[in-house]
Amino acid sequence: IIFEGKKVILRKVDLEGVSFSRDVIMDIISLKVNKPYDKTMLESSIESLTRFYNALGYLNMSAKDVVEEFDEKGGMNVRFVIDEGIQTRIKEIMISGNKGISEDEIRKAADIYIEAAYNLIDIGDARYRVISLYRRHGYVDAVVDVESRVSGGNALLDLRITENEPSVVGKVILRGNYKTKPKIIKREFGIQEGDPYDFEKLLKIKQRLYKLGIFNEVSIDPYDTGTNAGGSLVKDVIVTLKEGKPGSVEVGVGYGEYEEFRTSADIRYSNLGGYNREVGLKAEYSSVEERYVFHFMEPWLFNRSDLTFNMFLMQEAARKVNIDTNDVLYMIDRRSFLFDIEKEITSRLKANLSYEYAFIDTKDVVPGIILTKEDTGTLGIGSVSTSMFYDTRDNPFNPESGSINGIVLKVASNAFLSETEYFKGTLQSSWYFRLMKKVVFAASIKGGAAYAFGGAKELPLIERFFLGGRTTVRGYSHDTLGPKGGNNDPTGGNAFALVNAEFRFDVGKGFGLVTFVDGGNV
């Protein structure tokens, strides 16, 4: 037989002898006011307080007393009586045994200073940072010991360093690259024979080799080969690789309100000739569009890691329809080629410069949306575009934090062999915030403007802005938002603004829900 008795609720926690704010202490202890009282949490609360005080240099802190009292309503009041003691601070930091690295550089790496609170965790971190400094300089066998002498509220630290002999890089030996050319691998290294043997650099090299996308496994191991004339240990670098399959095929099937059933197939080869060059062919088909794209990519243009070259050859046949009546508004046959150079300015900032020439045949255009003679017939457009994007997203495919911000400028001109002339610019900024474990808030703002110059009076139909549909303003049918011509058919415009905000809910097993608000106009 079990007699539960009355449930006891913790009503109040009093703190005596504490110099810190009550909110700070209450966040540290396990006991929570207005929650069921668990006596076993007293001990864990005292342990948490002790760790907190010790981390701030209060080495002799103690809980002198813990008093439990029931109030008149049967609730529990707990009172902690704390003796903080004196705070111990670092008064002197001594460094000995260093020959290959200056004392100033060691102190800067240690990042611990006079008058800092004496904290064993911080001291341990400082020791690790000094060891990392030595390893970056090739002292892979360096030993750093820290001796502490504490007296009263004063602490003296003595960093005793045993450097041992430095190690340098010997030969780089590659294994397992049956298809990939050695120069493609070695250009990712950035180290030469005789450089300090740096574990951190080698780890970054390993990451870069994985990032190429042509290796399934990468291991980098040292091999001792003796000493050189200067007395340094020589370590050869053995790189063992397992190449992945360079070819891939992706097939997709879907359904959309505007396109109805749609399919796609993407064939790629990612290590052409063993030079990590990529070629691909993509085909897309739906009830309103048929599109083929050939793609070539050179990742190191002019043998520079920060320049990537892309070439596209495209053919597209599309028809724009009124989604309500299914009437054809106009049809387009487009053949184009595009050359693009991308520069990686930083890991987050990228810029592009591209040239495109397109042959466009626009036909069967309903009279109500014709604004200029270029809206029908064959038109050649030559244009140069430049863009810049700053991307801090944690995941480009399913972001939960960060942002992407960019600008794109495009000029079509007779100087680029174009039969029409115009300027076009767009801006965008998208932000992502994780509100809780499976909820993300996303917000985006986009805008653009364009105008014709030279002999052209209006933008050609295929270069005007349109909004409406699942990728822009989801409350409107495809491309129906904005100016209308005869029969209320959309003509597109020369400026637009678009705002999107949505909550994304992860419901598990690859499924999600989205609630959204969209707004915009053309």
Question: Could you give a quick summary of the protein structure above?
Answer:
With 522 residues, the chain is mainly β. It has helices spanning 22-28, 41-55, 103-110, 120-136, 182-186, 199-211, and strands spanning 10-16, 62-70, 76-83, 89-96, 143-151, 154-162, 167-175, 215-227, 233-243, 247-256, 260-272, 277-286, 289-298, 307-321, 328-344, 349-363, 377-391, 402-412, 422-436, 439-452, 495-508, 511-521. It has 4 domains: 10-83, membrane protein fhac (Ubiquitin-like (UB roll)), CATH 3.10.20; 89-162, Roll (Ubiquitin-like (UB roll)), CATH 3.10.20; 167-243, Ubiquitin-like (UB roll) (Roll); 300-521, membrane protein fhac: a member of the omp85/tpsb transporter family (Porin), CATH 2.40.160.
Topology:
Blueprint: E1 10-16, H1 22-28, H2 41-55, E2 62-70, E3 76-83, E4 89-96, H3 103-110, H4 120-136, E5 143-151, E6 154-162, E7 167-175, H5 182-186, H6 199-211, E8 215-227, E9 233-243, E10 247-256, E11 260-272, E12 277-286, E13 289-298, E14 307-321, E15 328-344, E16 349-363, E17 377-391, E18 402-412, E19 422-436, E20 439-452, E21 495-508, E22 511-521
Parallel strand pairs: 1-3, 4-6, 7-9
Antiparallel strand pairs: 2-3, 5-6, 8-9, 10-11, 11-12, 12-13, 13-14, 14-15, 15-16, 16-17, 17-18, 18-19, 19-20, 20-21, 21-22
